[in-house]
């Protein structure tokens, strides 16, 4: 039986956490021994299988009054002690800081580390410290899972040669959902209300759409990130007296029921890793308009005019034109949606699990 130790910050609901929770839950069903080593407990987390051993490696209550430098050292100490105690066959870490911690803590242990890069490196790995640590540490990784080819360009060539591109698995509830007999006059969007998703541009574009199609409504599904974006959106809607046709719906656990009602799905991000929200919309068979944002996530899964439409980042006019195009040409829209649905063959949970298992075995050799 393989013993795999996953390291991430927590299982609070988010993109990387969703992927890891899905992965660990399925691995234990395939007779892997799985340890999930996390820094903290989030308020609302994804549920883990009871066979997954959750171990806290963050700061303890007794550490609260200690100095900053000592606290940093303790975070590494706790994780390294766990590695040496458990001796897993492999450590798999997700996102920037957990990747650094895992690579440093594994030094001298002989335990291979597979890192997983989820964000746009040019936006998240761009500090002076990153410029030192990336060439120093990542070359020591046994492998790395990227979501797009473009992500790898910011990392050592030696790492890219032993890396693998694996997309995010989509929850089974988004797969095989029947197409509605008739679409409602809706443009829909899903995602946290956060600055880099640029929902403000979407509002501006929909103003232009509404001028031409006053019977259409925009519904944005997503919880507040508390970075001020929600307030900016509310202010825009109020200033333009658009409350009747621009609706902030909040978070929803039933997107698989709500999104397919829409005529078009709009994706407006300035940058992303591999956006789960976009994958879910495509799996549902939605006609999609998406920004061609770095680090290449939409471009990896969308071929322009074959299974969706790609537009330049931040181009409000292009977004409005593309939305109008799909509203007005329903034959094209449904053809794009039908082709988008085929992505389910690549990103269903079973297919992604097999890719991870194959890569783990390849690394362990």
Automatic annotation (TrEMBL):
GO terms for molecular function: glycosyltransferase activity. Residues 177-342 form the Glycosyl transferase family domain. The keyword Transferase applies. Residues 14-171 form the Glycosyltransferase subfamily 4-like N-terminal domain. InterPro entries: Glyco_trans_1 (IPR001296), Glyco_trans_4-like_N (IPR028098). Pfam families: Glyco_transf_4, Glycos_transf_1. The keyword Transferase applies. Keywords: Transferase. PANTHER family: GLYCOSYLTRANSFERASE. This is Glycosyltransferase family 4 protein.
